[in-house]
Amino acid sequence: MEIKIATNIETGIFYSIIKFLKKNDWKLIAEYSDEIFDKGIDFDLYQFSKNNETILLVWNNWFEGEIKATTETLNEIAEHFKIILEFGEPEYLHKPDIIDEMKNLLKFNNNFKQQSIWQKFKSKFGFSNS
To answer: According to the lineage, what is the superkingdom (predicted)?
Structure first.
């Protein structure tokens, strides 16, 4: 399976793709924490998994969205949204360890072992989400 990175995905379509993945049984593994003040304003990130495949999605307000996935999955997304995907130079998803590099800013699904430092700090010192 060939992995490619689609770039310059318009903001509205980017967030529609997130909803599409959730509705189609993709499991959200990690996302840019909603505790970070600029989530969805300056930056956003999502990681989904389904049938041993992972999709990474990153968005920022300067360069729009990027999606890293198999060619088959990207084709399915393009067909569903009736868009032509571009494959330019990515700003973020060319980094092989982006999830590890950003782990302190991410919120991980409770079914996964990883937690951000902020989540560990809150837990250790008894801070609640309210």
So the answer is: Bacteria
